[in-house]
Amino acid sequence: QVQLVESGGSLVQAGGSLRLSCAASGSIFSFVTMAWYRQTPGKERELVATINNSGHTYYADSVKGRFTISRDNAKNTLYLQMNSLKTEDTAMYYCAARKQLRAYDYWGQGTQVTVSS
Fold this sequence. Notes:
The chain has no helices and eleven strands. By secondary structure, the protein is mainly beta. The strands form two sheets. Strands 2, 4, 5, 6, 9, 10 and 11 form a seven-stranded mixed sheet that branches. Strands 1-3-8-7 form a four-stranded antiparallel sheet, with no helix packed on it.
C-alpha cells in the first residue's frame, strides 16, 4: 500500500506563495489521477486541482490562474504551486490518488496552509 505524505504548508501573508509537496512511498506511475483537496472546519472537502497520467490538469475556478499542479513520476511526488495567495485559501490541504476512475482511495494526512491578511 502506497503512503502519501504532504509537506510545505505554512503561515504566509496574502499575496505570497507556497509550494506543497506530496511524497509517495512507492511509484506513482500507476496512479491514473492525482489531486489536491482542501478543507476548512465545518465545510465539505473541496477539490482544488487534478492531474492525470497524461499531464492533463483541472483547476477549481477559485484557484485557476494562481495555482499549478504538477507531478514528477521519477521522484514519486505531486506538487501544488500556490501563488497570489488569499485569506480564503486558508485550509488543510490533502493530496489524493487513484489507480482507477473511481473514488480516490489513497489519501495523505494533510498539511495546513494559513494565509494572513
